[in-house]
Fold these 2 entries.
Entry 1:
Amino acid sequence: MKLLVATTNKHKLKEIRHILGVKVEGRKLNVKENGKTFEENAIKKARAGARKFKQLTIADDSGLMVNCLDGLPGVKSARFATPPTPKNLCQKLLRVMRRCRANRRAMFVCVIALARPDGRVRTFKGIVRGKIIEEMRGRHGFGYDPVFVPNGSKKTFAQMSPAFKNRISHRARALKMLKSYLWARSSVG
Ligand code: ITT
């Protein structure tokens, strides 16, 4: 089965390829991400890809929701700092969280939308809860990985090997559900 991934983010594409373990092609699309939820944006991106390329297409909309910031940066995670380098994103987050001494809780959310060329769509959501530490640690990954420590770990996502992050991440959880869905559909024909 041929699957396209509609994304402009090469780090996401690399993780998606690694987690799915199958060959998927990446396609860049210019889609305005103005939805209020991860679901809305993921559906918009996947549908645009499926319509344009007439192929089964997935898109990932993801981000970090910080408890003491009422869920921000949330759907605006990619554009929280300019330019949105990992250093700028993490430093801005650490700066605005100076008032969040007692509550550093956060979660990474990933919604994967699977769209068909006729517009039919399904979504799969993965969440990882954890906390934001007070400085950047680690060199792997992208985005907010250097400041996020998942529950049950002492390491940030950026201190883990990519293979380990790809086993436990929000993206891994969402894609696992997608895989089960696709597998169940293919085994019944
Ligand atoms: P596409 O929409 O083209 O796929 P994007 O980077 O704009 O790429 P999003 O709108 O979904 O994607 O924004 C997600 C942002 O959330 C991403 O740019 C990172 O800053 C952050 N993010 C998501 N998953 C992450 C992860 O696994 N590790 C670190 N940061 C992550």
Entry 2:
Amino acid sequence: MTTEYYTTIGLEIHAELKTLTKMFCACKNDPDEERPNHNICPVCMAHPGTLPVPNRAAVEHVIRVGLAVGGTIADFTEFDRKNYFYPDIPKGYQISQYKYPIVSGGEVAGVKITRIHLEEDTGTSKHDKGDYSLVDFNRAGVPLMELVTEPVIHSPKQAGDFGRELQLLLRYLNASEANMEKGEMRVELNISVSADPKVFGTKVEVKNINSFRAVERAAEFETKRMIELIESGRGAEIVQETRGWDETKNSTFSQRSKENSEDYRYFPDPDIPKFKLSEVFNLDKMKGELPELPSAKRARYRDMFGIKDEDIESYVNDFTLAAFFEDVVNVLHADKEKVKLASNYVTSDLVGLMKKDSNIKLPHAHHFGELIAMLADGKISSRAAKDLIAIIVVEDISPMKAAEERGLLQKSDAGAIKALAEKVIAENPKIVADYKGGKETAVMGLVGAVMKESKGSANPQVTKQLLIDLLQ
Ligand code: ADP
Ligand code: ZN
Ligand code: MG
């Protein structure tokens, strides 16, 4: 008999916040600064006698994220010192939040959030110099949001999806660029397996993950590793520890045993005043000013436009494309059928063209809308629609004019198509014989031939009827 195992995952996610200045000083918060130790000052370098002053914009970002996820915003909050020694923290402690995080609770993608708090980032070390290392403090003191989830995630895919949804949310809120590859968003994976769904197994924490795909792969790897240990009677070898993700080997490796919160000797930072947030912020007003969030946008697109989920995701993930689509919808007076048709051509043909060639830009919405209306009204074939899209993305021309110039307007008048149909019948005796022999579908071969002769401009319905009449 094989045992069934339950995977449990909780995530700890850090995101660098988008602010002009650092968390506690006036240094620039510039992730693109390449000159080492350029954005530093006595405060973020922890010179004696300097005092930290909290950055209001950073606090605002965390509150907005908290409001967006439906969390509870603390009224009382404070900053704590998290003491540890490492060359990239100038003070010998990191200013963080321990007992009184700004946000408690909330939910993203069906996953319960424990807390969201604010802290400062560390500097970065460079160990590629041989027998010495270098430290760059440009990042030291940059505002960092930390979000912790409850241990309620049960598959690698769900962990990846949560990360992607949170990234989207942070971008909608303009709180963070949240680029994983650049380290602007960092995911730590806590994971355990157990044969009993009511009892948690021992968890390990996995770090150095820099893509959502890697979150999923690391979770898959750990699940397998832990199950194999348990199955071979070596379950005791699963210990609470920090492991690193090795992207090239597709595996994790032990880094160090896990420190406890007691090890950090947390205590409230005596240099920073405590806050009563309601005295500083109008939360109702801030809530009212939140932008449309991804979940609301999905619901609106589903209800208003009735388009495919796949298309909705394309728009939810791309503001510019969504704005363009909504303009097209207006051009089409929100006619449901036309809107659906438009969405098909936006997400397949138009996006396809832009992916192939980065110089290709979105066309004018009124041109695109006109094109879709022409297609819906049978003035052009779907083949011609594709050709015209390729034209209006490079030329500022109305599709009607372009279609006229290039002879792409669909011929619906039987007279014009008749000559072509007769030619095709004369040239395809075998298909004609098949048709006359009772194979009705053979007529489509002739329709195709007429379409080809007309360079796609013959209306297929009209052509088919005409052929049938001629073959009587
Ligand atoms: P620690 O004290 O080790 O930091 P926490 O209780 O603070 O542990 O939880 C840290 C993260 O680990 C949270 O995201 C939480 O959901 C997750 N977590 C806690 N216990 C487990 C477990 N048994 N399996 C998987 N994840 C867990
Ligand atoms: Zn500074
Ligand atoms: Mg903890």
